[in-house]
Specification:
284 residues; Rossmann fold; alpha/beta; 6-phosphogluconate dehydrogenase C-terminal fold; 12 helices
Length: 284
């Protein structure tokens, strides 16, 4: 089954699902959309984001590839019922930001159903959500993690890789637990730190309102993630609690080291230079 011959159903037409549908236009045989909001479904249809909108049940029965692009806990809860409606030989995929619980749910799909399943997580996004923020170029140049399950066939992995390439991303295959440990550090921890920074500013501004009034580009850039969608981030944090707690432990140790180094100017300078070199080298 080639992507060009595939009917793809995208469940959830927010930022990620809407962007995926836009990026897949003209690259698959047919695009179906499933949206909780009737207004979103109508807007997607009017804008040509999808060829048709339907219920989750209709999408599961008709599509060759179903992509779940809703919050993680909803994805986990949706997997059993969706898979039960899908045809043998069809593929179930997701775009969830955490993978262990998703893969566990996919592993539970009965083997006799003939439904294949693979986890997915594109490493990109915006602080804002909704179909109105969707962008066909969102995935270009991004790393797109694929997490195999007990129900991942060679054909399913090949189709998933083809989808990733079609939207301009780079596929990286990882085990779910390794993925969740890594994103806890580079994605989920930064959100918590940004939120803590904003809460710190709020506390300081209660004592002296000038604090917030002086906030400029440095504060704006470092606090940016605190403006992310709360419900989405809550789902992410709750489904990767262990990884986030481990990341917080490492960060608290670094904060303790930074505090101690304030009494050691040379040591503090070396620590800062090491961080500077690391950061500059990561995104060249």
């Amino acid at each position: 089954m080639r992507l060009s011959e595939t009917t793809v159903a995208v469940v959830g037409l927010g930022l990620m699902g809407g962007s995926l549908a836009m990026a897949l236009r003209g690259q698959c045989a047919r695009l179906l959309g499933v949206a909780r909001s009737g207004a979103t479904a109508r807007a997607a249809l009017k804008a040509g984001v999808v060829d048709a909108v339907c219920s989750l049940e209709g999408a599961a029965r008709e599509a060759d590839l179903v992509v779940l692009a809703t919050p993680v806990r909803h994805i986990v809860a949706t997997i059993p019922g969706t898979a039960a409606l899908m045809r043998p030989g069809s593929v179930l995929m997701d775009l969830g930001s955490t993978k262990v619980r998703v893969v566990e749910a996919m592993n539970s799909i009965p083997q006799e159903s003939g439904v294949a399943a693979i986890g997915g997580h594109p490493m990109c996004g915006k602080e804002v959500g909704g179909l109105e923020s969707a962008d066909a170029t969102l995935f270009r140049g991004a790393t797109f993690v694929l997490t195999p399950t007990l129900r991942t066939t060679d054909e399913a992995l090949r189709l998933a890789r083809e989808l990733v390439a079609a939207v301009g991303a780079r596929a990286v295959v990882l085990e779910a637990a390794q993925h969740d440990r890594a994103v806890a550090v580079i994605s989920h921890l930064p959100y918590l730190l940004a939120s803590a920074l904003v809460q710190t500013e709020a506390q300081a501004s209660e004592c002296d309102p000038i604090t917030g009034r002086l906030a400029a580009s440095g504060y704006r850039d470092t606090s940016r993630l605190a403006a992310s969608q709360t419900e989405m981030m809550l789902d992410i944090l709750l489904t990767n609690r262990q990884g986030v707690e481990e990341a917080l432990d490492m960060f608290e140790a670094q904060l303790g080291r930074a505090r101690a180094l304030l009494a050691d100017p040379e040591g503090l300078k070396e620590w800062m230079i090491d961080a500077q070199k690391r950061r500059r080298g990561m995104f060249q």
